[in-house]
Amino acid sequence: MLENVDLSQTINNEEYKKSMKILEVKLGELQRRAWELKIPIILVFEGWHASGMGEDINHFILPLDPRGFDFHTMTRPCYEDLLKPFLLRFWARIPVKGRIGIFDRSWYSRAVIELFGKEKDEEALDKILEEITYFERQLADAGYLILKFFLHISEKEQKERFKEIKKRDIPLILDEYQGKNGVEQDFIEQYDEYLPVVEKILERTDAPNAPWTIVEANDRNFAVLKIIITVTHAIETYIEKVTGTPGQQTIKYLDMATVNLPVLNGSALEKTDLSKSLSVEEYREAKKLYQHRLESLQYELYKKKRSVVIVFEGWDAAGKGGDIHRLVEELNPRLYRVVPVGSPNDSEKAHHYLWRFCEGVPMAGHITIFDRSWYGRVLVERVEGFSTEEEWRRAYREINEFEKILTDAGAIILKFWLHIDKETQLERFESRMRDPEKRWKITEEDWRNRNRWDDYKVAADEMLQKTSTTGSPWIVIESRDKRYSRIKVLKTVAETLENELNT
Length: 503
What we know:
The chain is of the alpha/beta class.
């Protein structure tokens, strides 16, 4: 990709100033229009050291309204970042709809430094490049405009600039840890050594929804002009697409893995045996046994730095709260947290739907329990029409990719669907209405959802079918009998953790 780049391209000062005067006005107008249309934009800047990235980015952002963009310099991660899957720290920084996120180095540089590193781990690099393509495609599918720039200079030019930088005593890397711990391992002067790595990254991650633009940066005026021309053209084209009529839009997303096919094996939920139950004595004995095992297992998880994600979904009044309560009853609260998930707030709606769940992903050695989760996209949002059919169909693949990123990083995922029948739900609703201490648990929304039972059942069946994977399978919990439900959850979690920790 880089071998045919013509680094001799230049532009004279007069032409540069004339062009910039026009482009700066245009860029400001497009930023304001993108804000009005709530178009989120991500600009990634990568390149060789001494390629002039800092100066070029500064020239680019000067015409922008600073209230409309976020600037991120991606230096080494903090301790908490290192205890979570690699991409989560970048998910946390994606811009809200209408804003521009500018990344001065990004997930690409960090992948080379942290995962490829001095050991030259090709396998780790290949895996993370695959995850990066998931990440960028999911954002693009959600309406993000992604532009990536690689500032390219020759090895000879880099050496000349290093001499100038050294003469002026300018720090090449701005890193607050530099003085204490030394310069982080980075591809600073190993141009020949890292050229094949850069080529590989550019080729593997150049996609129509997140394209790379190679910027010939031997001449700084040329580099700045090319960046601004590329961005203004891309934003202008994207705005035309967004404001066009449906007939002018690009072909809608289609994933053959998620088209509406008949469920040949029938409903998985209809086959569930809800007659299963436990006596009070059986329940007490099993509860004591499994809670004691889980109390010990949480410390083994901590020692071995394995994180656990537990997802609870199911019908209203199926007993999620009670199951979660028994699950954590004997655990150390320093090592677990419960994240209740409700309707997204305005800030969450302004991001990609997976964004709000990234903060809750546990650090290595910790447990997070989600009381409802990202599966709302293919359940309530699907049934109630809060997401389009294109969006919720796409979500099956996106969720599988998201969970694969977690399991690839060592996380253990357990997903429970708590199942009851319609009659049991009605009995529990009415019981709550009669009990003043439990009446708060029942809302108008619960009754409204009940009226769409059949629609939710179709959505739940398809969700179970399309998102139960080898790495994160669904476990259906027979929950008509609450004692049976609670013990099955405790037993499943305990046995899964034991198997994982002993392998």
